[in-house]
Amino acid sequence: MSENKLFKDYFDEELARRMATMITAVHPQFPADAFVNQIAPQLDGLEMKQRSTVFVQALRDHLPAGFANAWAVLEAALGAELSDEDGVFADGWHHWPIAQFIETFGLEDFDVGVRAMHEITKRHTAEFAIRPFLIHHQEQMLAILHSWATDENPHVRRLVSEGTRPRLPWAGRLVAFIDDPSPSLALLEKLKDDPSEYVRRSVSNHLNDIAKDHPQLVIQTCARWWADGSPERRWIVQRALRTLVKDGDPDALAVLGYGPPQVALHEFVVSPDPLHLGDKLNLSFTLQSKAEHEQNLVIDFVIHFMKANGQTSGKVFKLKTAVLAPNQSLTIEKSHPIKPITTRTYYPGTHLVEIQVNGQRLGERSFELVLPS
């Protein structure tokens, strides 16, 4: 896939023809021209998910009636499974409308829909398609997922975690699992020592999701996993706690071996002041150990950005981790660009910068942000 082409632009007339060719190879009576001609005129001005929906409706209109009959054709046309754990979106992206077809119509026949998800996830992903099944048939689907947790295919095992994430990006929230994450936690227990890093990464992201609503439950789970865990399991824990660590949660930090810091902050300088939008903010400071023992430190800085209402909102930025010996000092310098980005609107005025060590704020400095006139 080209780095210069937007993902949505791959869902075009060329993909419609590619899908038509794929289907007619196994189902010669498929009306390929009508399929392409229905899709092509509708795509301009649409975003990716909207474009995919156009493909889904055309599949519905031109495949045999009924989900089971339609899936029999699509399954035969799927082609080879992904050869490795990468490529879900890079190599399997063209199956997105087929996965969305399952998401949209698969509940018409639960058993066939389940089989369809098992097959498509080995070529693309069913992490979105599975969510209606979990919402409408939670107990049945959970029982199936428990069996899939030991499937020989890592894409299927990953689906067990990724598909049940309560706050999966690009997907509707699973409110039942936000309220009570115990069903999905039971699945993660089966996957925490999975041989595939691809699966373990999903487990860590899933736990990070749960931590947004049930931080203490995730901390307790991670503490138990850490205590007798392999390096691979501890890697999951470190990634799972990343948001809580960034927020300075002392219990999450303690799981990873970061206790209350015994350090003094010296020579903390922020420049330039004033700072013009587009310039770099320069930080320098020294941490001096006050402990008689070695300390593990997570060192961050926090910028409190001015908002439209005159209040400020803090954003934590990672600096480094360090081991500080007794009476040792550590000097850190950092340049951070303050430049326009799509996710933030800047407002002029006084901004604060704080140094955070093991979740504790040690000192602050201010600077004036100047916007172009």
Strand numbers in spatial order across the main sheet = 2-8-7-4-5
| Named CATH architecture of the largest domain | Alpha Horseshoe
For this structure, the quaternary state is single chain
Nearest-integer average pLDDT: 95
| Main sheet makeup | 5 strands, mixed
Unreliable sequence segments: none
The string of secondary-structure elements, in order, is HHHHHHHHHHHHHHHHEEEEEEEE
Helix content: 40-55%
Number of domains: 2
- Please provide the count of β strands: 8
Structural class: alpha+beta
Count every helix, treating DSSP H or I runs of 4 or more residues as helices. 16
Which CATH first-tier class of the largest domain would you pick? Answer: Mainly Alpha
How much of the sequence lies in strands comes to: 15-25%
Q: Provide the gyration radius in Å.
A: 25 Å
Shape label: globular
The end-to-end distance, rounded to whole angstroms, is 41 Å
CATH level 4 superfamily of the largest domain: ARM repeat domains
CATH topology of the largest domain: Serine Threonine Protein Phosphatase 5, Tetratricopeptide repeat
Describe the structure.
The protein has 373 residues and is of the alpha+beta class. It has two domains: 7-255, ARM repeat domains (Serine Threonine Protein Phosphatase 5, Tetratricopeptide repeat, Alpha Horseshoe); 263-370, Immunoglobulin-like (Sandwich). It is built from 16 helices and eight strands. The strands form two sheets. A five-stranded mixed beta sheet has the order 2-8-7-4-5, with no helix packed on it. The chain has a three-stranded antiparallel beta sheet with strand order 1-3-6, with no helix packed on it. The two termini are 41 Å apart. The mean pLDDT is 95.
